[in-house]
Amino acid sequence: MSENQAIEEFYTENRTFPPRETFTSNALLTDPQIYNEASEDYESFWAKQARELLTWHKDFTNTLEWNLPYAKWFSDGELNISYNCLDRHIENGKGSKVAYHWEGEPGDTKTITYQELLDEVSKFSNVLKEFGLKRNDTVAIYMPMIIELPIAMLACARIGVAHSVIFGGFSPDAIIDRCEDAEAKMIITADAGYRRGEPSALKVNVDTALENGAQSVETVVVVNRCDLDINMNSGRDFWWHDVMKDAIPICHPEPMPAEQLLYLLYTSGTTAKPKGIMHTSAGYLTQVAFTHKYVFDLKPDTDVYWCAADIGWVTGHSYIVYGPLANCTTSVMYEGTPDTPRESLRNGPERSEWSKDRLWDIIERYKVTQLYTAPTAIRTFMKWGSDELSNHDLSSLRVLGTVGEPINPEAWMWYHEHVGRSNTPIVDTWWQTETGGHMITPIPGITTTKPGSACFTIPGVFAEVVDDDGNKVEQGGGYLTITHPWPSMLRGIWRDPDRYLETYWSTYEGKYFAGDGAKIDEDGYLWLLGRVDDVMNVSGHRISTAEVESALVDHPAVAEAAVVGATDETTGQSIIGYVILRGSSEESDDLRNEIREHVATKLGPIARPKAVFLVPDLPKTRSGKIMRRLLRDVAEGRNLGDTTTLADQSVVAAIQEGAQHSDEN
Ligand code: WTA
Hints:
Layout: H1 21-24, H2 33-40, H3 42-53, E1 64-67, E2 70-73, E3 78-79, H4 81-91, E4 98-103, E5 109-113, H5 114-130, E6 138-142, H6 148-159, E7 162-165, H7 172-182, E8 186-190, E9 192-195, E10 198-201, H8 203-212, E11 219-223, E12 237-239, H9 240-245, E13 256-257, E14 261-267, E15 275-280, H10 282-295, E16 304-307, H11 314-326, E17 330-334, E18 340-341, E19 354-355, H12 358-366, E20 370-373, H13 375-384, H14 387-390, E21 399-402, H15 409-419, E22 426-428, E23 463-466, E24 476-482, H16 497-505, E25 512-520, E26 526-531, E27 536-538, E28 541-543, H17 545-553, E29 558-568, E30 572-581, H18 589-603, E31 611-614, H19 628-635, H20 650-664
Parallel strand pairs: 4-17, 6-7, 6-8, 7-14, 8-11, 11-12, 16-17, 16-20, 20-21, 21-22, 30-31
Antiparallel strand pairs: 1-2, 3-13, 4-5, 9-10, 14-15, 18-19, 23-24, 24-25, 25-26, 27-28, 29-30
The structure holds 5'-O-[(S)-ethoxy(hydroxy)phosphoryl]adenosine.
5'-O-[(S)-ethoxy(hydroxy)phosphoryl]adenosine (WTA) binds at residues 267, 313-315, 403-406, 428-433, 454, 514-516, 528, 531, 623.
């Protein structure tokens, strides 16, 4: 272990899961030759996919123009995104096929076919036009998980208006920042959406935002989801049902240039102002359609696919809306949280005040074939216990996916055994808002998986793990870089080219720097190690949070864990662990020490946490990422910085209490 090693690796995993015959006998992709084909000529490979998966108004002759750091894919081609997601399927006789089985949190349901979706989208495109919106304008969307949300997005795409979806959990300040940066002319919202049995207000936040800024917004369109009595500002605010009443359900899908801006999606950096990540049309749709089809082994005629994310995140953009619809998928869309008050479950089991089996209930009722969710959700299900699944028939599931964070091997195994009944492949998909679509993931009919590893780059994408000096690491830890442009890559940061260059392209010359640590093992498998900002430096050893957290969760008493490096006079930093125990485990000093020792045994003494705090919960963003910055503040006894993106504000107080309590003991 040398001092200049970027990030050291401590963990080794020996379990492997080759694709099963029962799966490969019917899988879309089983021949690894596709990787060679893509490596030999990746531009031709993507050109072929673009022509096979999409319908073009005008074919392209230029596959890629690459002027680092700016890529243009298929630039002289023309297509319309909403035509590709809707009209062409209807032309192929699929008008009566279900696009979404939607389920509200209170248990109300709605089914919308491709033809109905096209009608609604066309109507709303006409509404947008009526309000004066035209190509290259931007519109903000701040909505719950209701069908009107994809309708609004596709209606924008149909006429070349770029949307900027603002996650429904964000505050008025976030609305102001995003609307001002994008100069949004309209906000599409709802009175509220249901979350944990209650309407969670949206329109009042829009009102507050517009009282305090966001001057560019002229119009607000409001869906009535919860029948709340809300303020409607005359001349500015319009009900969705009113403006849609007489709208005409026919709107020509205008051919758009391949590089037409499709959307902005803001990602919050840890400190600075959010970055408006830009995604354009044809390249984006090519890669999301390709990955959605082959990574989930999607069979549109028989599958019922469910991505249980929120459309407010990129996962929802790419894998609830654009990818699935481009592939003529039948999807499930669900409004609420995995635990819901009991009375909201139709015919639900009466076991406890809150039902914790909503996901399994939905999978059983709709016979879901693919489930795509986040490691944080899986660890929550682990904490709730496998009994929650026992009364549900999950045998329809064929492929399981995860995204958003490194999945620790124990959570992977739990997902495999309890949800996948030990015979369903798991695809651990690494990607980012910036990458638009999957980049590193198994392909279920080809890849032998290892629990906790995202395995390999997809065909046509190329990654390298590098050390501090940018030299390629053949085996061991380092930083993840992408070495060639890819079709769904971000096209920049909205109105901030300098920041684009600086954030992604200046750390390693000629390569995209993802900001993640990664290691490559002796078989060439990639393991993601978390954000490099979170890497801990203990006596000169750079240790990833992901490995220590995995080792903590590996202890039978531990359900969830987060670690941070806190300043330490002797070692530079010391590792502090925050741990949530499984339901049945009792707190004690002995247990804390045992957990610390467990890490030392798994990874070596250098990785032994100096302290382990038992806490009731962990601070997370609404997309489920642990906010380690806040935990560092707690560990170092500082006042907390910005907590606006925190999902549950009460968690930090509980942790501070938990940390104090553990200290006292
Ligand atoms: C992390 C979500 C490990 C990573 C699509 C990345 C992952 C950030 C994985 C992007 C995974 C996402 N394994 N880490 N399978 N997937 N990440 O922009 O740190 O919300 O850089 O996009 O999530 O988060 P974002």
